[in-house]
Amino acid sequence: MKTLQSLLMLALFGHSAQAIAHVTLDQPEAQAGKPYKAVLKVGHGCEGSATTQISVRLPAGFRGAKPVPKAGWRLDLKRAPLATPYESHGKQISDELVEVIWTAQGEDNYLQDAWYDEFSVRGTLPEKTGPLWFKVKQSCVKGEWDWAEIPASGESTQGLKAPAARLILK
Predict the structure, then answer these.
(1) CA atoms within 13 A on the CB side of 83
(2) 84 occurs within a structural domain
(3) Residue 5 pLDDT level (bands cut at 50, 70, 90)
(4) pLDDT digits (tens, 9 = 90+) for 11-70
(5) Measured between alpha carbons, how far is 150 from 120 in angstroms, rounded to an integer?
(6) Which domain holds residue 43?
(7) In this structure, what is the dihedral angle of CA atoms 7, 9, 11, 17, given to the nearest 10 degrees?
(8) 149 touches 164 (CB < 8 A)
(9) Are 118 and 42 in contact, with CB atoms under 8 Å apart?
(10) Structural element, H or E, at residue 10
(11) Is the pLDDT confidence value at 83 over 50?
(12) How far apart (Å, rounded) are the C-alpha atoms in residues 150 and 160?
């Protein structure tokens, strides 16, 4: 009986540890073509080292993106021209936000390894259903994680060491 209990506990805690070991989305499913607030959850640093910067590479088709600023963190934005411009609110849009970078302004603002925080950006989702991937680079005092791995096929991130944050569009 103790062996069964031990195996169940190992399975439960082993799965939980794997689940919190990544940068993930607060809401992992959303309606295609609708507004969405991507809340990226950061639950740890890099091998015990505090986080100093979070960079989110936005997926193609995530339109009209606007980040949420954070006190104590500088916000930098990177834009890129669109292959196909679109119209929004009567205005022609020819470039789009492609990357959002939050950088801690001093050691007092670092996200310590033992702490949890969220980084958010809102926008409108593409019309196509299926997986959409938010790639997140987490830089720390010592080391970094590039949460950018995407499965070769399908939606499962099982077996990936540093998976991108997956959003399922329905």
Answers:
(1) 2
(2) yes
(3) very low
(4) 333 333 333 448 999 999 999 999 999 999 999 999 999 999 999 999 999 999 999 999
(5) 21
(6) 23-169
(7) -150
(8) yes
(9) yes
(10) helix 2-20
(11) yes
(12) 8
Q: Residue 4 corresponds to which tokens in the numbers above?
A: 């069964």
DSSP 105-124: SSGGG-B-TT--EEEEEEEE
Q: Which of 101, 96, 124 is nearest to 34 (CA)?
A: 124
**Domain contains 6:** no
- Quote the DSSP letter at residue 33: T
Q: Is residue 49 part of a domain?
A: yes
CA distance 59 to 96: 11
Supply the CATH number for residue 37's domain: 2.60.40.2230
Q: Decide: 122 and 66 in contact? Cβ < 8 Å.
A: yes
Q: Are 40 and 145 in contact (CB under 8 A)?
A: no
Decide if 2 is inside a domain. no
Q: How far apart are CA 145 and CA 21, in angstroms?
A: 11
pLDDT tens figures, 86-125: 998 899 999 999 999 999 999 999 999 999 999 999 999 9
What DSSP designation does 97 have?
Answer: E
CA–centroid distance for 113 within its chain = 17
DSSP state of 19: H
Contact assessment for residue 150 and residue 10, using Cβ atoms and an 8 Å cutoff: no
How many domains is the chain partitioned into structurally? 1
Give the amino acid at 36.
Y
